[in-house]
Amino acid sequence: MSMSLEVKNLSLQFGNSYALKDMSFQLNENKIYGLIGRNGAGKTSLLSLFASFREPTSGTVKIAGENPFENARIMQQVNFIFNKDYKDESDSLKNYLESISRYRPNFDMDYANHLVEKFKLQMNKPIKEFSKGMQSAVNVTIGLASRTPITIFDEAYNGMDAPTREMFYQQLLEDQLEHPRMMILSTHLVSEMEHLFDEVLFLNKGELILHEEYETLVTKGTSITGAAETVDAFVQAKKQLNTKQLGNTKSVMIYGEISEAERKAAQANGLELGPISLQDLFIHLTEGEE
Ligand SMILES: Nc1ncnc2c1ncn2[C@@H]1O[C@H](COP(=O)(O)OP(=O)(O)OP(=O)(O)O)[C@@H](O)[C@H]1O
């Protein structure tokens, strides 16, 4: 079964307000997608439609060509990892992992044990007694060890400290090499996660404002620095994201292709061209009036 995920003219309303507006895109198997957006942009709403937690108001989601809603065969192919509330979970981690392994056909218990050791979790302790960061490590262990063809991590790092997050990223990349699957990672932690992404989707106020390969995206963002008039002349026909000026020196972030001829002309005119980070692109492409 080919694990593509196709979204067409998708909208989701809560009452009169749109959480998602007329979105269309396609995701393909075995790639890692970064789903990036500010608070309230619609990330969880979108992911909950993939996980069949609700139905769209209009438009369609198709997974492997089928509507996933109340479709057990398709839902077995999707694993939605979110910040679950474990306050009533008195099962030990060991029992909990065993019960999950029964309905996740690719679940690898040896690998789960390896992750439990890496994350320094106690197998015999009730999950409700774990700290917040440890509960997130439990979620990540389940998400990785289940090896589900579509694995979704919705801000799965919640409460994890920096070394634990780093371990998560490293395990994810290593396991993806051996057992490729489609992964969707929603996050605000753009700078520390960007190295994971094959493709990036930016959501802003319920709209998909950009879907691009990571490598292409970062080459499209450029900072232009130099004498104010020369910078102004160069950027006037470009999409400008942010401007800073100190005396007569100006620096403008732009987004878009720059031809080799333009690059040479800019340098001949004394302008400096530099890369801008995905974090900067995120901040400046999604800012604006609230
Ligand atoms: N159950 C709900 N009822 C009403 N409105 C909702 C509901 N769930 C989400 N919304 C609204 O939909 C919009 C998108 O919310 P969503 O949780 O999808 O954003 P998000 O990008 O995941 O945000 P965050 O990064 O803060 O988790 C917000 O305006 C939110 O208030």
UniProtKB/TrEMBL annotation:
Q: What Gene3D superfamilies has UniProt attached to this entry?
A: P-loop containing nucleotide triphosphate hydrolases
Give the GO molecular function terms: ATP binding
Q: Tell me which Pfam families the record gives.
A: ABC_tran (PF00005)
Which residue range or ranges hold the ABC transporter domain? 5-230
Q: Which UniProt keywords apply?
A: ATP-binding, Nucleotide-binding, Transport
Look up keyword Glycoprotein and say if it applies. Answer: no
InterPro entries in the record: AAA+_ATPase, ABC_transporter-like_ATP-bd, ABC_Transporter_VariousFunc, P-loop_NTPase
SMART domains in alphabetical order: AAA
| Superkingdom | Bacteria
Q: Which PANTHER family match?
A: ABC TRANSPORTER ATP-BINDING PROTEIN ALBC-RELATED
Q: What is this protein called?
A: ABC-2 type transport system ATP-binding protein
Which source organism? Metabacillus niabensis
